[in-house]
Every structure is written in structure tokens, then in C-alpha cells.
Amino acid sequence: MKTVIIGTNHAGIAAANTLLDTYPDQEVVMIDKNTNLSYLGCGTALWVGRQIDSYENLFYTNKEAFAEKGARISLETTVTHVDFDKKIVYCEKNDGETFEESYDKLILATGSVPISPNLPGKDLKGVNFLKLFQDGQEVDRQMSDPNVKNVAVIGAGYIGVEIAEAAKRRGKEVKLFDAEPTSLASYYDDWFTKGMDANLEKHGIELHYEELATAYKGTDHVDTLVTDKGEYPVDLVINAIGFRPNNELGKEHLELFANGAYQVDRHQQTSDPDVYAIGDCAIVYSNALQAEAYIALATNAVRSGIVAAHNIGGTPLESIGVQGSNGISIFGYNMVSTGLSVKMAEKNGLKVSYTDFEDLQRPGFMKENAKVKIRIVYETESRRVVGAQLASEEDISMGIHMFSLAIEEKVTIDKLKLLDIFFLPHFNQPYNYITMAALSAE
After folding, report:
1. Annotated catalytic sites, by residue?
2. Please, which pLDDT band fits residue 66 given cuts at 50, 70 and 90?
3. Are residues 107 and 253 located together in one domain of the fold?
């Protein structure tokens, strides 16, 4: 059986590895328009901010590794279109050479593309997006210019906040803009986002919330950002507004979700039984919502690639759904979440309650210590846990995995009240903040 995979980032890599390592009868063809594969884009801000020495280790595999396993790989190759009836993929290399690939099964792993607002001046030099490795290279090159002093970041989601930190670490004057009243509004409730905003301001980032960019000005290079509230001198603009699913190849043939992502079942199969869609171009099943959703995360992409590959290889496997677990660390302040915030639950029509607690991570006599705050969100009627958020200068990240499993298994808030949680002063308190938050629930 011949499987063609279009896209070689997290989802495509996971699918290819699973097919090549598990199913020896598979002929695997991998196609990508980029010059590289397997780039960990989440490390771009670490590299640009010089928190790591170089970008080399942000690539966790290479073309040669797959060639050794028997895959055929074509990089710097654009898929111009797919004939789904004849099951043929039409390709064009950067040098103009064209070729075709037939398939038995096709995996679309085309990811997402940055949202690009159609504003006056959008084509000026110095107006950038962050997605690909080359985008990171270009932003880093401009950041290295001593004449670049004022940086505007548009969008205060994960990527925007991270690149704002990176620019500040490079000695720039940074302004952060967003239409929402806080940063990270899609992932956290205000109790948490206001803590992050205070952290950003403490480190010298100027916040401009509930403010919309309307134009870029300049002759050849951008020199002014115009918003609905004023004009600001800029030498570099980084757009991080968000992403939309890249559905160009299949949008006329395959069923789509409300936002344009490919509609797939729990096997990652599209409306065409010979076509699978994985990663950021496809939907997932949200265990918190108990419904289909669009949650673009690298970990979701990897899992979807594994599921699709096993089904293609002949092992029936269903996705168990996702919680959308995520985290961020900015100037040493850590926030993690999974499932739904109160705000997002209510936006999706769920009636929820929540319980909050704040305490030190360890007993007060421990020298190394910091405050931790936690919110557990649960459905009011069923009392099942649907979300959790934690924040601290301590590394509290591992705790979120327990809540992810709790959401998946429909654990109630009451089940958590007397959960067996160990105590040792090096790690936590005898009255653990998870226990105390659960006990405080109505």
C-alpha cells in the first residue's frame, strides 16, 4: 500500500514514523514545500530571545532519517492540486520541475497559516509573521539590527507574549497590542491573565489592550503603527493574531468544520474514505465540551498522526479525544491550563461553577518557595471537571496532567476532595492546594 503524506511537521512526522516503524508493507512518500522538516516552532522565541544558544536543536529529525527507513521525501516541493477521483497528487519543485504521485491513501498534514489582516501598508518591509523557521530567521535578523529599537507585537496570545518577551530580552522597547482586555484570553480567566499582565509590565513591556491595529505607515519600510486609539513609531512589527486551518488542497472536495478545518471522524478519516487529515488542518474531539472542536496544538498533532497511521496500516484505532492542555513561561512566571476556562465554558453554552485557592507551594519554613494559585472548573449539574488553571513562579506544570486525565475520565470535583496526594516538604504542603481547592467547592 502506498501512502502519500503532504506536510512534514509534527503531525506528518508522527504519521510517517508510525507507518515506517510498524507496517513494513507500507510505501511512504513525504512531500513538503519547506526546506526542512520537524521544526519546533515553540522554540522560536527562546532562540530569538537568546535563551538558547542556537536554532539547530529545534529540528528533532531530518530528511536522511526517513530516507534510511525507506521513505521517499520531496522537500521544496509544492502540491499544486489533488485529483481525488484518480487519486493523484500533482507536484512542482522550486526549480520548476513537475511530477505526479499516485496514492492508495492520502494524509493531509498541511497545518495552519497565519491570519493576515488586510490593512493598508501590510506589504511594507518590517511587517512580519511568525510560523515557519524562515519567519523566525527573518525576525531574528531584523532584531539584530541596532537601528531597530521599537518593536510592536500585535496579538497577545501565546506566540505574541513569547515574542514580546524575546524582543525585550534583546533590549528593545516593546509594545504589545490585543483586541481583548488581557493577554492569553483564549486560555485563562482574568484572575490568571491579570497576573501575567502584571508580570509583563514589571519587565517593561507596554500593554495596549482593547486596541485594534488599523494601518501600517512608511515609505518602503514600516515606521508607524496606526490603531483605533493612536499612532506609534515602530521599526519592527510582528503579527501574532492567530492561525486558520490550511484547507486549500481539499476544501472543494472534503467536508469542512465551521472554521474551515477538515471534518474527520475519530479515526482521522475525512469524508473521502481514502483521505485522512491530521494536525492543525483538522478538527479534534474535545472531552471537556463533549463535542468536536478546533484546538491547534503540537501535542494534538502528534497524536492525530499516530491514530491516522495505525488505521491506514490496518490496526483500527480511535482517538480518545483531547483536553487542549497547554502552558507558558514568561520571565520566570509559569501558567498551565487544560480543558475550559470559565469564560470559554460559558461561551460554549456550558453551565459551570469553579473553585479557587491560593497558597505557598511548600511549608513556610522552606527557603525555596513561591505562591501557587489554582482554579478548578466543573459542570454545575454533573459536577464533572471540565478545566483547570495553575500559576506560580514554581514549576507546577506536572499537576495539569492529572487534571487532563480527570477531564478525559469525567472525574467529578467531589472525587478530587480526598484524593491520595503525597506530602513531603521538598515538594508541597500537607494541605495540598489541589485538595484544598476541591474541598472548597460548593
Report:
1. 10, 42
2. very high
3. yes
**Residue-range definition of the domain harbouring residue 192:** 116-241
What radius of gyration do the chain's Cα atoms show? Answer: 23
Residues 225 and 150 in one domain: yes
Closest by CA position to 324, among listed 347, 349, 298: 298
- Where are the extended beta strands (E) located within 324-402? 326-330, 333-339, 352-360, 371-379, 385-392
Q: Which helix (H) or strand (E) holds 39?
A: none
332 occurs within a structural domain: no
Domains in the chain: how many in total? 3
Q: Do 71 and 141 fall within a single domain? A: no
Beta strands in 141-270 (DSSP E): 150-154, 173-178, 206-209, 213-218, 222-227, 231-233, 236-239, 243-245
The answer to whether position 182 is within a domain reads: yes
Question: CATH number, domain at 421?
Answer: 3.30.390.30
* Statement to judge: residues 9 and 89 lie in one domain: yes
Backbone conformation region of residue 218, classed left if phi is above 0, alpha if psi is from -120 to 50, else beta: left
Tens of pLDDT, residues 37-58? 888 888 999 999 999 998 888 8
pLDDT of 2 over the 90 cut: yes
- Give the pairing of strands 206-209 and 105-108: unpaired
**Which stretches of 102-189 are DSSP H helices?**
133-143, 158-169
Give the helix, strand, coil percentages of the chain, each rounded to 5.
25, 30, 45
Q: How far apart are CA 441 and CA 437, in angstroms?
A: 7
